[in-house]
Input
Amino acid sequence: MALSGVEIFKMLPKTNCKKCGHPTCLAFAMKLAQRQISIDACPDVSESAKQILGEASAPPIRPVTFGAGDKAVKMGEETVLFRHDKKFLNPAAFALEIMDTATDSEINSKVEAVATSEIDRVGQKLRIDAILVENASKDAAKFESVVKAIAAKAPEIPLILSTTDPNAAEAAVKAVADKKPILYGANESNAEAMANVAKTHKVALGVYAKGLDALAAFTEKIKGLGVSDMVMDSGARTAKEIIEDNTLIRRAATKKTFKPLGYPVINFIQRDNTMLETLLAALGITKYSSIIVISSVERWKNLALFALRQNIYTDPQVPMQVEQKIYKLGEPTPESPLLITTNFSLTYFIVLGEAENSKVPCRLAVMDTEGLSVLTSWAAGKFTASKIAQFIKDSGVENEISHRELIIPGYVALLSGSIEEKLPGWKVTVGPREANGLPVFLKARA
Amino acid sequence: MSFVVPKESYSGKVYEVSIGTEKVANFGGESMLPFLSFDGAVKNRPLIAYEIQDIPPDDWPDTVKKVYEGVSSNPVDWAKHCQDKLGAKAIALRLLGTHPDRLNTSPEDAAKTVKDVLAAVSVPLIILGSNNAEKDAMVLPAAAEAAKDKNCIIGKAQEANYKTIVAAAMANNHKLIAMSDLDINLSKQLNILITQMGFDKERLVTDPMCSALGYGLDYTYSVMERIRLAALTQNDTTMQQPLLGDVGMYVYKTKETQAPEADLPLWGSLEERAVAWEMLTASAFMIAGAEFLIMRHPRAVEALEKFIDELM
Output
């Protein structure tokens, strides 16, 4: 169970030696209590205290990684139920299910679809993270050969190997053990043998038990068998079961520090109806899935799910920013209007959307104001006449356009005179106060 | 260590709002976070209203405009189509033509449209202005009067224009949407101002301001979660109104609902992408706490209804 700072302090050397980087042992104890630092930072703590504290200071949801190299997937380590309390840490991974009974060409095209799924969105590279190979054939040799073929074709894609047959598990895991796959499929009837495979090859184990009581007991059993990296499946398959089980698991782990449910969650949401499957995936993203197993990876679906995952997993304390530069909307000519705004992502998106709706090609100068909106950045002295003038000069936009007119947001109308002073030869025009006035404003000029 | 189900019990609950006269629709009323039936009673399904306009949807992208080809040239046909062919449980009529930058039609024109639509359908009606604060203050009172005693929702009252709109909703027995700018405190403050005028707090719907997937959804999502938590855990009567997600108008401004696959092959089918964009935006807000959604594409609505079936 979680220990308070004072309880932790009692177990520390109390020498205030500062070797951990904190002024006092009490300060260090407080950081430990908030799980912001590891006990390893203290060189003098006793072994017994270390064991107690290590257990207590571990994150409530165990960090588990699968896959190797740059594309390895990190899961767990979450500490809260709501993103406004603290940033959600490790985004849910999408895993495409491939049956080992599929034809070679079906398998190839699915692997290809995952391998080429990467999309750049607001500066982040997003992709389908993993492949789950399902031992639908119930044939160990078949499973092994399909797993090998997929690993050979796409050596970087993290794998989840799904079977309940320990022989099939042993053969397949052994073949790709260096890629650190997850072995999914331990249950009450094969627990010892599956735990043994996972332990031998040092891979994480996916464990299944129907219902949270049984699941909690089962993770303890697996832990007792010597496997500590697990992902859990409570058997939830409908939307109702998923939102309820996932919420109770996250509550138990983070609010009650209930260790038997302190592992990442895997949800199976495959549906024949792709739209419904997309919605189930959205449920997984918002409500605490670590791995979401899907049956198809259409590009439109990927894009929508990536966007949602990005939204939910951004840091709510840090304003999202876009890159400072001159953005081209449509195909602007040297005569097209030039507008300026700030780089707070919401400001940018709204201005961009409205300017695009006008269908008038233009240039949008987006200035780095550390992610603050127009009025806030003006008030904070980050969106001033001299900074705007400097940005326009440095941007090189003068070489792209034939005119010298800058359209500024209506809220900073009072800057127009001073910008003209700082930018000799330029005319400053005051645009609408709200972005939704842009279509009419721009069309009227065109 | 044995597992103890970590249930929550809350002191507060969300008000239940009932709209319409012939056919009635209810939403809100729950005493737990969305769909967590182990914590409290699930009173109603989230309600989805189909959005229509008083003028043809020329500014809607083709992906959703073409769905209403042949009926969208007048609001009466459009409303009937939604009710009779699409099975709409409620209809949201946006009086966009009254906007000074559109047709600048008069409050009297708007009142006539409202009367015509009300005469044509039996499902509840939501009457929305053009989101021009000044003009809405003239249009919505006329519209509210035209719909007197029909138990509609009138919207949206904002800080700049709430007084006349609140008075009109009160005088004509309607429910009311209060919209503020994506900030829990502003939302609370507006609800206080409105109830101080004597408007019943249980007849209000809160619109904390919507946004689209990929374009600020995270802000609306968290404001909704925080409002819903304040309603339940703090029993805050200014936060216990059902929440509205006015999804369609934000979603169909995004590039993702308009850019052809030929230009952006990595984005896949435009048709499916647009439906998915609206559907996922709506689903996220529903999971965050919205009990009432205004949407456009029948396929997005249909998928979301299936999803709700599975969640209930």
Q: What stands out?
A: Chain A has a mean pLDDT of 93. Chain A touches chain B through 60 residues (CB under 8 Å). The radius of gyration of chain A is 27 Å. The first helix of chain A runs from residue 5 to 11.
